[in-house]
Amino acid sequence: MSISTVSVLSDLLNAIPQLRPQLYFKASLTALSHAMEDRVLADNTDHPLLIASFQRERYYRQEAHRYKRIAQKTDQVYVLSALETDFTNASGFYETIAFDLEDPLSQEWHLVIIGQQYATCVVCRERFMNPSKTKSSLPSTFDVDSSRQFEGIWTSDRTVSFKAAELLLARILNYRPELSSKIEQARDNFGLSPYNKRKSSKITKPKPAPVGVSTIDLDPFVERLVTYLQAGQYKLLKAYGSIAEQERKERLVNSITSAIRRGSNTGQPLHPQEILSIAVEELGLALLVCRCLIYRAGATETTATITHEFLKPEVKSIAGQTLQLQQHPLFQLIIQQKESIAIDDTQADDRTTNSVALQELVERFALRSWLIVPVLYQSRLLGVIELHHCGESPHPWQENEISLVEELATQIGAALIQAEAYANLEDLNQQLEALDRTRSNLIAITGHELRTPLSTIQVCLESLATEPDMPWELREVMLSTALSDSERMRKLVQDFLTLSSLESGQVQWHAESLSLEECVELALSRTRSRVAMAQPKITTQVLENLPLVRADGDWLVEVISKLLDNASKFTPPQGEITISAVCRDRQTIEVTVTDTGRGIENGRLELVFDRFYQEEASLRRTVGGTGLGLAICRQIVTGWGGKIWAESEGKDRGSKFHFTIPIAITKQVEPRSKKVTKK
Ligand code: ADP
To answer: Which residue puts its alpha carbon closest to atom 21 of ligand 1?
Structure first.
């Protein structure tokens, strides 16, 4: 026994090339087969030959009881099915033929009835659809069986039915050679001839129906009924298709929304980046596009970087590339209209063919069909979703695809805002915690710093009060110590309040365009008036033609004064101090205060900016100071976006304090600087 590799339908179409196969839904074939079988059951005079081939045992089992009844009408009944569990070759009520699962018969559905008065047949082969496509295009509630489709022949043409019978009998004989005499008898009864492959193109002329019995033509009513059934089935499939589309859309939106809601393991909402990663992947997979992009872009931004990408295999990645938004006519259109843009064919759409910039993008990204959907939140543009088809032929965008992406864009917009709000809240919390820590630190340190001079004042005053006999010189020392310490306390409290208001952001900055030269002059005059003792020479190297700077004048003078005060304090009178300023780049000026004083050890260059950092303990200090000056300077400089840092070659090798300050943007005739007044 050899298994045929060719389907019965192919053999039939080869033998009768003029036959045109048609498409049948499973429901139509079931109805047709039942109608054909019913005819046999209803007729008591004809004893036809009936051959039924079921693909699978389970399909046969559903009909087994009918076949028992049919077998009472005729002894020429042959039932074929694939060998699965207990379906075997047997001669019972009728002949059963178990064919191999590998046999093409297992993909076919046949019913052939050859009677004396009529002949009819269904010879069909199942059409297998792409399983992922079938699954995704059908709602989960839909019985997949109903969507099965077959192609083949249904006819009451005697010639065709005879040919089909011959072909099937040959297959039966192959599996059950012992039936040859029974089959021979059938051939004799109905005028069939054995199927011969080599002569397959020769069509057997069927034995004419007996005299007086007309062959029955296809009943026009049955034909209409089948057409009606087919149309109904088609409509049903279409309806199911649109329900499926809706269901798919909901499932996708839900899966993304729930992924976003589920968030991270910590129970906190996802980070915006994670939201976009999930969305781009799900969307790309669901719509089977070549490329799906999501990137953040606000209406006022000039560039956007492609951060999230889904790619079909073998499609070029464009992740990480930067888009110039102002030269992107479609992006500008999105900002204006806040609506999606669907371009079915970039080679035929005026919007792309008329723009050089877009043509460049089309080529760079190999774009054939292009869908751009804005991600909005309350009309604010947060980003963009793009879908690309890159193939040879265009992919016209379907309404349902566009609405799906738009719906998702709405969800993404809301999720992004939610995630951002949460992140801001987190930030704020962290800031509050930091502030709280700072406050506790400050209270502890300030308490200590204030207690030291206060104790000195107390001791001095107590001694003065309790020792009336104290010598005059000692009284003077006591009094001047108490006075200088109370002055130190006043300064400490003042610096402390300044630093607190700077750190808590309560300071109102009044930025203006200023001449650095004038600010330096003002700071110098302050320093000179403050430091009474002999002090080192201060040289200014600030060029007159330096551009104006942009800062709050009072605070700028404060920084320069503090740096000059420090340099004066820590440099012996014979030393030198220089204040210089140069343009660092087109946006920044760098100011440097250099001294030849006691210098700073390498490991302490950062520490000096800490609150209350002083090299020697307050009691051993020979020069005044609160230890808050540089901390205040750092707050002021970072307030205008600058940097401040110290440099020193080491102990006794002088120090350099640098800070940067932004250059004012001068449009045309900028009025010369406003006069800076003393605070
Ligand atoms: P202070 O009121 O003590 O000057 P600052 O915050 O201004 O407080 O400075 C902190 C410390 O940094 C100083 O006590 C000193 O040890 C060191 N320092 C600041 N400026 C100089 C400098 N020009 N040369 C050497 N050391 C300096």
So the answer is: 566
